[in-house]
Write a structure and sequence with these properties.
Elements: E1 6-11, H1 16-27, E2 32-39, H2 43-53, E3 57-60, H3 66-72, E4 79-82, H4 84-90, E5 98-101, H5 109-117, E6 121-124, H6 127-144, E7 148-150, H7 153-162, E8 170-177, H8 187-190, H9 195-198, H10 208-215, H11 218-231, E9 238-242, E10 248-254, E11 259-263, H12 269-277, H13 308-319, H14 323-339, H15 347-358, H16 367-388
Parallel strand pairs: 1-2, 1-5, 2-3, 3-4, 5-6, 6-7, 8-9
Antiparallel strand pairs: 8-10, 10-11
Bound molecules: magnesium ion.
Amino acid sequence: MKEKKKSIAILGSTGSIGTQALDVIRQHHDYFEVEVLTAQNNADLLIEQAIAFQPNVVVIANETLLEKVKTALSHQPIKVYGGDAALASVVQMESIDLVLTALVGYSGVLPTIKAIEAGKNIALANKETLVVAGALITKLAQEKGVNIYPVDSEHSAIFQCIVGEFHNKIEKIILTASGGPFRGKTREELQHVTKAQALKHPNWSMGAKVTIDSASLMNKGLEVIEAKWLFHLKPEQIEVVVHPQSIIHSLVQFEDSSIKAQLGLPDMRLPIQFAMTYPARFKCDFPRFNFAHYPSLTLEQPDTKTFRNLALAFQALEKGGNAPCVLNAANEIAVASFLKDEIGFLEMSYLVEQCLNEMSYIKEPRFEDYVETDTATRRKATEIIKNKK
Ligand code: MG
């Protein structure tokens, strides 16, 4: 007898991860069906995806676009909702087996919590969720018996290395970083880099937020915090190494000194697929790695004096409490302002640092404290930028 198809909700289906997840589903349509698709603003692509994949429900978070989506799908057997509240409630639908969270930034926190509360397994592409509220989310997931499968390529690599290791402890993990487009540059050179330069990632094609974060190394900082929660690690068990070729996606060292690594071409469809098919590996036609094309794979220390964000993220991680939430909120404002040409590349780190120093510290935040910290930090960061002008 054929197994029931796995029913997937994709939050953020029109983004880079969302569209690649739909590619994976298209290749394995015998195994998956799309139950829910959601988008923030891209109504046109959401409509197109809905017609192609026939989900039960679509949600457009920006409510001003609700009528447009409704009208376009009026002849389809698809329910259409609008707004953040709808987003937070559809993830609890009985029929969903797995929720892929591919929203951008802080907006992923509440829907992820709601999905976990309803006992849904999570394929987590929204690292900010664990950065902001890792303690709360991992505790809740444990209580509800929910699995969180990493989609971030580095974390997927670590996950793939520990599959089958059962009770063997991780001594440390080594997260690889490409170093981004500005690797090797000095602070003087970074002073005047433009957003166009920052948006040109050498190896990965991704959304704007994560691409800027990669250029500033904040992405690796956020990933360090994400790794702490996913794999129950102490800060001193997490190391970052720059690997410009992005072939080794990360490494795990065990207590007997053995190191395992996961390798492959930089293609997000693999970690997306593995999060959806775990523990199975499905045959696919993604391009294969060829050693002949990569005569050398190199590793080097990250330059945290030039790229301060990585050091700031470690600081926030050590401090704990709401500090990573402050880091994340300040960084989201910093990236948005950099993309609007309001602040320079290096000013992003200053903004984050200033917020980390000035926001009040809460040791054991509850959900409301995270919400309040996020709002207050955004306000603070926006003020700092305004006063600077
Ligand atoms: Mg990553």
